[in-house]
Amino acid sequence: MNIILRGLKNMSLNDFFSMGGYAVYVWSAYGISFIVLFLNIILAIRNEYKTLNEIKKRLQNNKK
Amino acid sequence: MYKWIHQFGSPKYFYDISIPLSKWIAIVCAISFIGGLYGGLVLAPADYQQGDSFRIIYLHVPAAWMSLFVYLVIAFSGAVSLIWHIKITDIIARASAPIGASFTFLALVTGAIWGKPMWGTYWVWDARLTSELILLFLYLGYIALQSAFSDKRIAARAGAILVLIGVINIPIIHYSVEWWSTLHQGPTISKLDKPSIHLTMLIPLLLMVLAFKTFYITTLLIRARSEILGYEYNSSWVKKYVIK
Amino acid sequence: MLEYINIFYVIFKRDLTLTFREKTDFINSLAFFIIIVLLFPLTFGSKSELLNTIIPGIIWISALLATCLSLETIFRSDFEDGSIEQLVLNRYPLILLVSAKILAHWITFGIPIIVISLTLGVILSLSNEIMMALFITLILGTPILSLLGSVMAVLTMGLHGSMLLSILILPLSMPVLIFSTIAIQNASLGLPIIAETYFLAGILILAITLAPIAAASALRIRLS
Questions:
Q1: Do B82 and C217 touch (CB under 8 A)?
Q2: Are the beta carbons of B226 and A55 separated by less than 8 Å?
Q3: Which residues of A touch B238 (CB under 8 A)?
Q4: DSSP letter for each residue of C27-59
Q5: Alpha carbon distance B99, B105 (integer Å)
Q6: Chain B, nearest residue to C171 by Cα
Q7: I want to staple B60 with a disulfide (CB 3.0 to 4.6 A). Which of B55, B110, B158, C40 is the partner?
Q8: SS3 of chain C: helix, strand, coil, percent, to 5
């Protein structure tokens, strides 16, 4: 609770979004990073599901 | 102790423990991301010279450190794979490469975005930036080489040789700011001295490093699971597991 | 010991003979090199100031690209007719035989590139200091390219129609390119180039000792 109060004292919401005039740089950097990290983990999970489904399908085909 | 390490060589054992392990490490990752981002974006005071744009450090430094760390993991797995022919090291190396390439890309991009307000330019051909770019091309070449072979074992060992040749780049990147006079600033956190950065700025940085590291491990475990299934699709434990 | 020298010479002579028998590969990459370098005065006009400053770098980059082109041929014909496996399977150390092939490649491609670069330098009226720097960096750099490139050539042996060889070589040869161009710039300003020469010589020694080992193990991996 203390930490959140200290944070609110440090920076107002306006400051947070404008980042002292450097908003374009800071937020584009954070935005690109989040996109890349999300893509990484989502593609990994999708890959896993795809592989599992492929093996399942192949096993069922072999059984027939 | 050898028995414990020896068990890791079996893909089935690795698969079994990676499922709960990746869940726990993902939780640690989420917590440290939230803590690091809050500390970095809100709690840390603005730098008196750079203003608020210095907050890009909380992405740039962890991404750069992880790009080197992942390359060393791939190099080490490659060396183990060449010497002892252990399958799981092939899998770890192959799965880590795209993640390492993303980290290198992020380090370069966030560095360029940070450089524009700081140095006035997006890019400069100094030693550290150039060698980091070479690292990105090494990652991409490694991924391309792996996908060029249909036999995965040969692909893994050929890739291991490529990575071991390129490992000379890592000390060049790390020590380039000490050996040459570059535009990039020198090291602020070394292993033995007191860091030259203030504590309120340091703690979010360490939290973000932990966040990136656990992110790497989680994504690696997920990718490694898919690779193990790809390698072992004929074996009985996979058949039993899939049908369940 | 004598039989090692003999077998080295036998493989070396074999590669030289094969290259000169099939002159097309040999002429191809050298013609490519000359044409690229001559395209630049054609585009920029032969008297422009811009051209004079970048021409040594152009010569180096074209030498790099021509070497990439020529490296495809070291192991290609041997791989296609199966004699590469004879090289791996006999009782002589593979490192020795691979070194012989790499030396033959440098003699047939590296040395003509150096000679042609100096000729082109004379044609494009480069100053004496720049020609000296060009000569020193090329004579140290082209063996490095042959050595590193042959390891990449082994790794990508027989993969048809992919630019993978060039994609793998170019990042690894960036340090060589960087040091050579710094040396040439220093020479054009009249500064000493001994530091870059030491760096290039160091990379060359590292490559001579380690590249044949890497190429030999890569050959064993590819043919397993």
A1: yes
A2: no
A3: 55
A4: HHHHHHHHHHHHHHHHHH-TT-HHHHHHHHHHH
A5: 10
A6: B134
A7: B110
A8: 85, 0, 15
In a domain, A8, yes or no: no
**Under the phi-then-psi rule, with left for phi > 0, alpha for psi from -120 to 50, and beta for the rest, what region is C161?**
left
Write out chain B's pLDDT in tens, 244 residues.
677 777 777 888 889 889 999 999 999 999 999 999 888 888 877 777 777 788 888 999 999 999 999 999 999 999 999 998 888 999 999 999 999 999 999 999 999 998 888 888 888 888 889 999 999 999 999 999 999 998 899 999 999 999 999 999 999 888 888 777 777 776 666 555 566 677 778 888 999 999 999 999 999 999 999 999 988 888 888 888 877 7
**Contact in structure between B160 and C214 (CB atoms under 8 Å):** no
Mutate to test the interface with A, among B48, B222, B243 (most CBs of A within 10 A): B222
- Chain B residues inside the 8 Å CB shell of C175: 134, 172
Asked whether the beta carbons of residue B138 and residue C224 sit closer than 8 angstroms, the reply is no
- Chain B residues with beta carbon closer than 8 angstroms to that of A35: none
Judge whether B72 and B161 are in contact, CB under 8 Å: no
Domain total of chain A: 1
Length of chain B: 244
Q: What does pTM read for this prediction?
A: 0.91
The C-alpha of A16 sits at a distance from chain B's nearest C-alpha, in angstroms, of 7
Asked if residue A40 belongs to a domain, the reply is yes
Chain B residues within an 8 Å CB radius of A32: 106, 109-110, 113
Does A57 map to a domain?
A: yes
Q: In terms of CA atoms, which chain B residue is nearest residue A47? A: B226
Check A40 against B99: CB less than 8 A apart: yes
**Chains touching A, CB cut-off 8 Å, 3+ pairs:** B
CA distances from C24 to A44, B79, C12, C142, C154 (A): 47, 39, 19, 21, 21
Contacts 24+ apart (CB under 8 A), A20-25: A20/B46, A20/B51, A20/B52, A20/B53, A21/B51, A21/B52, A22/B51, A22/B52, A22/B53, A22/B117, A25/B53, A25/B56, A25/B113, A25/B114, A25/B116, A25/B117
Q: For residue A34, give how far its alpha carbon lies from the nearest alpha carbon of chain B (Å).
A: 10
Contacts 24+ apart (CB under 8 A), B56-60: B56/A25, B56/A26, B56/A29, B56/A30, B56/B110, B56/B113, B56/B114, B57/B114, B57/B205, B58/B204, B58/B205, B58/B208, B59/A29, B59/A30, B59/A33, B59/B106, B59/B110, B59/B208, B60/A29, B60/B107, B60/B110, B60/B111, B60/B114
Chain B contact set for A3 (CB, 8 A): 38, 43
- Give the residue among B156, B70, B159, B77 at the shortest CA–CA distance from B106: B70
Give the closest-approach CA distance of B209 to chain A in angstroms. Answer: 14
B215:A37 CB<8 A:
yes
Neighbours of chain C (3+ CB pairs under 8 A): B
Find the length of chain C: 224
